[in-house]
Each structure stands twice: as structure tokens, then as C-alpha cells.
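Objective 1b of the project was to move from sequence-level analysis to a structural picture of ligand recognition. The entry below was assembled by the postdoctoral researcher (A.K.) and checked by the PI before modelling. It contains the amino acid sequence of the target and the SMILES of the bound compound, flavin mononucleotide.
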Amino acid sequence: MTIPMTPAMLERFQQGFERARQADIPEANAMTLATAGPQGRPSARTVLLKDADLGGFVFYTNLNSRKGRHLADNPAVSLVFWWRELAEQVLIDGHVEPVSQVEADAYFASRPRGSQIGAWASLQSQTLESRQDLLDRITEIEARYEGREVPRPEHWSGFRVRPRRVEFWYGREYRLHERICYELGEGGWQESLLYP
Ligand SMILES: Cc1cc2nc3c(=O)[nH]c(=O)nc-3n(C[C@H](O)[C@H](O)[C@H](O)COP(=O)(O)O)c2cc1C
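Corresponding predicted holo structure:
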């Protein structure tokens, strides 16, 4: 069973995110997503946070991508936000659950048309013989959907990272950083401070 975050945890995240936005940090919603591949080998890349609620942290991607294949085999993930200008990071460990079709459809429909076409055209993480091959696919898909809405491809959807550990890290002088850790235990969320 997964227990949602407490309102206090979500608020702590949202306050940091808001500070990052106020500080005009570009792509404050960019986060490193680490997955585990075959034999438990880690790999990481950046994705964008598209929603955060008590249930977790949502991102979207191509389900056939390398990360998509990792997640199909092993839902365990780790996320890192680093907001340099604030000297803050947020570290999240947990597992992914697919978002609902309704949620994915709604988000896909809100994306610019070019990104919708791109979601069809890109065979994310597969070998591309030449850039022209991608451009040709885009032309073909633009023609296919000319004059009508672009539907969400089945291979493109989102995941909600359901946390079991969330750490808020605040950089302080002399490296005496503040670390506040929330971890799921027997009785629910436990809050503790960690040495820097
Ligand atoms: C700032 C930034 C944001 C990105 N956001 C996403 C995203 O939301 N979803 C996604 O699939 N890829 C995103 N990417 C591309 C990924 O980092 C990665 O190249 C791609 O998803 C393929 O990863 P994979 O081969 O490990 O599956 C982003 C890259 C950058 C630099």
C-alpha cells in the first residue's frame, strides 16, 4: 500500500518550488530521474515535473523509451531537484504508477501541436539513421493529422512517482546544511533531521 504525502510535506515542496520560480530559475521543474536497468544498473536523465499533489510527482514520456522499458521491469525510481540559486535540493525515492488515461489525455491535449506531432514522430531512445529520417516522419505525421486534432499516442503517457522517502536539503554556511527527511515507516510518515 502506498501512503500519500502529508499536506506539510507537499507544502514544503511547493514552497521551495515557488521560491525557485520567484528567483527566475530556468526550468525550475526540471528534475533528474534515475531508473534501474537490467541487472539493477542505474541510469539517469532529466525530465520535467508536470504536476505535484499528495499522491506524488508526475512526468510524461515515451513508454517505449529506454526509461520506459526500465520502468516496465522495475518501477523503483529516484528524483533529484537542484535549485542552484537557492542552494536547495529535494531528493525523492519511490516507485512509479501510471497516470490514468484521462489524466494523460488532458495533459497531452494541453501541449503545443508541434510537441504532439513530435510525440508521434520520435521513436525515443531508438537508433536514428539520420536527422532527415526524423524530419520525414514529422512531415508524414503532420499530413496525417492535417485539419484535425492530434490524438495522444498509446506509447506516450505519464507516471506519478509515489514517494517513500523525501528529503529537503537546504544549503547553509560552512557546509552545515539542513536536511529534513520524511520516510515511510510502519506507522506512516516519520520526520527526522540528518547530519549534513
Ligand atoms: C530540461 C530537460 C527536460 C526534459 N524533459 C523531458 C520530459 O519531460 N520527458 C522526456 O521523456 N524527456 C525529457 N527530456 C529528455 C530526457 O532527458 C531524455 O533525453 C529522454 O527522455 C530519453 O531518455 P531515455 O533514453 O533514458 O529514455 C528532457 C531533457 C532536458 C534537458
